[in-house]
Amino acid sequence: MKKTKNIFWVLLILIMALFSCSTDNDNCVKLLRKVVETSEEGTSETTLYTYNGNEIVSIEGPQKRIDFTYSDGLITKTVTLNNKNQLLETIEYRYLESKLVEVESLGNYKINYIHNSDKTISYERFTIGSANQQVKEFHGTLYFENENLIKDNRILDNMAVGVTSNYNVSFDYDSNHNPLHNILGYKKLLDHMQAISLNNSLINTVIATTTSGDQVLSVANYYKSSYKYDSENYPTERVSETAIFGNGNKGYLKTQYLY
After folding, report:
1. What is the dihedral of CA 105, 74, 237, 219, to 10 degrees?
2. What is the DSSP string of 17-72?
3. What pLDDT does residue 234 have?
4. Angle 59-239-40 from CA coordinates, rounded to 5°
5. C-alpha distances out from residue 96 to 20, 45, 99, 150, 191, Å
6. Is 171 in contact with 178 (CB distance < 8 Å)?
7. How far is CA 60 from CA 65, 83, 210, in A?
């Protein structure tokens, strides 16, 4: 009789846990396993996500694979290989008191971050030339609200004398779960922009302004996405008419998320 009661209570606890997950969305932590992207022409590409617990091990697509290295729960290095296992890029991440302070793509560029008292983050990006010579490309400030990156204000530093150029991006979000946010340490990667945010970006507004003497040229672009969600408020599908492809072109893209 006692054994039967114990089994009953174990089953009851399991049922309650499952019921809690279905009714309390914040208790349901999912990890993204696969992404399928389909263009307007019907061409599809699949990207696979591999984990050790909630640490990301690799992200593998048809053209390249990114391998991740951790230290004390923080992502410290990514290595990007092509589909022939040839090295494309190595990026190292350095932290101070668990806050990202430097990103270095070995031999390519470096980004320095300063965490300000008002919770904004200032940054500077340098290209790395021959003999490790560093040339500043741009600097800017990142703004956050409710664990979402809401604005990136950037000033270009490699313009001609008398010419200034600003590049400002703002992000609007839904109130649902960004599946990448559950990856251990991923939200620290400031160079990944809105992908580190708690929620999913619906609209990206990009305003580029160039001033030369009395002439001011300003161009605005809007990138919109719509989502479908599962019962735990994780996205299952994203559709964008203004997705940016690797060749720089914009167009339709449907993205499916599998967990």
Report:
1. -40
2. HHHHHHH-GGG------EEEEEETT--EEEEEEEEETTEEEEEE-SSEEEEEEEET
3. 98
4. 90
5. 37, 37, 5, 24, 16
6. no
7. 4, 9, 38
137-174 per-residue burial string, b: 16 or more CB within 10 A, e: under 16: ebbbbbbbeeebbbbbbbebeeeeeeeebbbbbebebb
Cα 41-43-46 angle, rounded to 5 deg? 150
Q: Which two tokens stand for residue 28?
A: 């349901």
CB-based contacts of 119-125 (< 8 A; 24+ apart in sequence): 119/144, 120/144, 121/190, 123/190
pLDDT digits (tens, 9 = 90+) for 202-253: 999 999 999 998 999 999 999 999 999 999 999 999 999 988 876 667 899 9
Asked if 257 contacts 237 with a C-beta cutoff of 8 angstroms, the reply is: yes
pLDDT at residue number 50:
98
Contact 186, 196 (CB under 8 A): yes
Positions in the chain whose pLDDT score sits under 50: 1-26
The Cα 55–Cα 51 span in angstroms is: 5
Q: For 227, left (φ over 0), alpha (ψ -120 to 50), or beta?
A: beta
Closest by CA to 59, choosing from 77, 43, 35, 84, is 35
In single-letter form, the type of residue at position 12 comes to: L
Say what the pLDDT of residue 230 is: 98
